[in-house]
């Protein structure tokens, strides 16, 4: 198994284990708003409703991170979420991950639900134990190797990255289970770790939390290019072709069913499924496991590519398939890229026209580590779930956000994982951008040009590995000029909600100021600059 398995194992289990004894022992349960000083109350957006009762739960949830406090979690302890709606509720499922490993011993693939995407109720887990077919399939494949390998009697499992999607009247939950044992021996520096499996469970009623497991869909598969022996810790040329984790599912407008999956090693794969079974028709040859639709760098020679967590949606209004990808390591550097194609199998290209299927860097980048004033910021913001409310047709982006490393007063602060839900907006040329503030179901107001005037915090999401992009002040003057971090001019079209800053179109919306003290409504903007980098603003 490729090296990222070992790295993920370390991140999820060693990092979180470092917090096991720390749950409930934080030196400070601040929500990062206590130190915010409002210097100019006149600068609060006059078009918002200041009595709106928005969410108040703290971003530092370490005081309630333990299992016995799960009824208070709301969006605490969320990682790799996937969201789908059933009836009046949105349902969220996730990787087995929590601060201090509070989830351990309480089932796999935790679930919660919400009527408004803001307040969430914890529901328990999908599985009480690992499905038996995983161990059986693993050891069957080991016995068929040349030479045959002994069975692993007690595999070490990781339960990662499910994906929920409705098709017809059935909800399919594709899920990842990895075996982190080395293929031979005990040292991951001398042997690649064992394979991963993607399984399928189905339900017709998410509120019941009853699932019928359908078994294996695909597994990691070797292609004969490399052996499973590793030549030390610097050997990144992995044994398996595609890594069977991070599944997502899409049903095309013409009724085809596709599984999109993969992580780091050899890129992202797409394989067509049987519409009735939700599985490939056969897995006899390497081609049956799918073809690569995205890579990073030299895809022909590099078997270690820093991208994962693929998710494809189809936007009927634009006529494009959009491939969302997580780039880089997950604890801090995680950032989200997008490419698009008119065909489900690609080629996928970025906003600069570069071919991501052939390994070009994907642009635009729509999330990146960032910080507004009054908060230490958020890092590790990716592995997105992209979904649409069937009633409002509004698109949303959901992922985890982690607190940065070394936040004062919080033990193992980077192991604090808060679920984030954000609106997705669409630029005039058909590219998705996400809101700079998390969704709070703020009522829409009539935003005027007068509301735009005043001081804003603005962030340009330039790519810097593991570095936080911090906000800078920009003043929008009454005479339509700008001073501060951006100079020039601005105009606002009240009918469309489009703010133009030096020829850059930005989408303005009502929002919840999570960093203010006390929190309050405000207005924000999001868009792309001429280089295809996201530009975020908050008044």
TrEMBL record:
Pathway(s) of this molecule: Glycan metabolism; L-arabinan degradation
Keywords tagged on the record: Glycosidase, Hydrolase, Signal
SUPFAM superfamilies the UniProt entry points to: Arabinanase/levansucrase/invertase (SSF75005)
Gene Ontology MF, one: hydrolase activity, hydrolyzing O-glycosyl compounds
Domain of life: Bacteria
Domain Extracellular endo-alpha-(1->5)-L-arabinanase C-terminal residue range list: 436-537
Gene3D superfamilies listed in its UniProt record: 2.40.128.10, Glycosyl hydrolase domain, family 43 (2.115.10.20)
GO BP term, pick one: carbohydrate metabolic process
Keyword Transcription annotated: no
Positions of the record's site feature: Important for catalytic activity, responsible for pKa modulation of the active site Glu and correct orientation of both the proton donor and substrate: 246
Signal peptide region: 1-18
Active-site residues, record numbering mapped to chain: 80, 308
Protein family membership: Belongs to the glycosyl hydrolase 43 family.
Protein name, entry field: Arabinan endo-1,5-alpha-L-arabinosidase
